[in-house]
What we know:
This protein is α+β, with helices and mostly antiparallel strands. The chain is 51% helix and 12% strand. It is built from 13 helices and seven strands. The protein starts with a helix and ends in a 5-residue tail after the last strand. A four-stranded antiparallel sheet has the order 4-3-6-5, with helices on both faces. It folds into two domains: 5-170 and 313-337, Porin chaperone SurA, peptide-binding domain (Triger factor/SurA peptide-binding fold), CATH 1.10.4030; 191-295, Chitinase A, domain 3, CATH 3.10.50. The radius of gyration is 21 Å and the shape is globular.
Amino acid sequence: MRKSILTSLLLASLPLITPGLIRTAKAADPAPATGAAKAPAPEASGIAAVFNGKEIKISDLDAEIQRKPAFAMWQQVGSEDPVLLNRVRLAALNGMINRELLLATAKQSGVINEKDIQGSVDQTVQGYGGKDKLTPLLSSIGTNYEQFTSEIADDFRINAYIEKSLAKDVKVSEQDAKKAFDSESAKYTQGERIHVSHILIRLDPSASAQEDKAAQDKINELYKKASAPNADFGAIAKESSQCPSAPQGGDLGVVDKGKTVPAFEQAAFSLKPGEVSKPVRTQFGYHIIKVSEKFAAEKPDFTKSRALVEKDLLQKKKTELVEAKVNELRASAQIKIMLQAS
């Protein structure tokens, strides 16, 4: 799925989670979080909040955090840090409340077509290679197929409400786009890019030496196949990669320099088109990388960037409307946050 206004809003309150971690695996993140985080230890008992008369337990909140790939930095920084722990919990808690408020409003709006929702869910599942391919991936991040499809159906309901009701009249004029481009032209400087694919063998940062050795053996075996003359990299990725991009042959699309984890970027941008890298270790596991195209940096140009500028401006306007709606809904809801900001 593409990055939604909803996702941006629900996770925006967590300063340690970068936008790159919110994006989907195929679209922009060649090193998605694929392993479930360890259960947070400090102060895991008690009540996080009371929302419209219903208690939200800290243990339930922690379980929610563990199975959200968007919180990948949780694993990288460590869940024992009490300050980080509190910030992550507060962000997740507010996200859960915002989502429930929007979902209830969406269901009451009368603009949702359930046939369209089911069609979108089915399309998303097929994008991951179908139920059989998706189920083990979901299990690896601590959730299941039924929960996943239920949650994305609700996400589609909320987004349908945003598009068909809340923000249905939002438009961007050429004048607005030109003004935005002139004020942020550096943002639209097109840096160096590559069209990249990869094969991933997942490995948790806390894996044992034995698990590490098994992952190395597997990636080395796949490297021999992928680097052989006339090898079909895409077919190997479809069969063996443990990344959500596997159904697309490991294709991650066009990736900007500076948007991936350092070890991955260094290896990928050093490749020539058609080359395959030796196994590369990141915090997500072992990768084999292939670059099909390279694109040189370009200076900002409004004509070339206009579609992107309009898209960004439209997203910004919609997000502002959603934020205002959420604030309105929160003002009339009964919310008592027990967690203290730190």
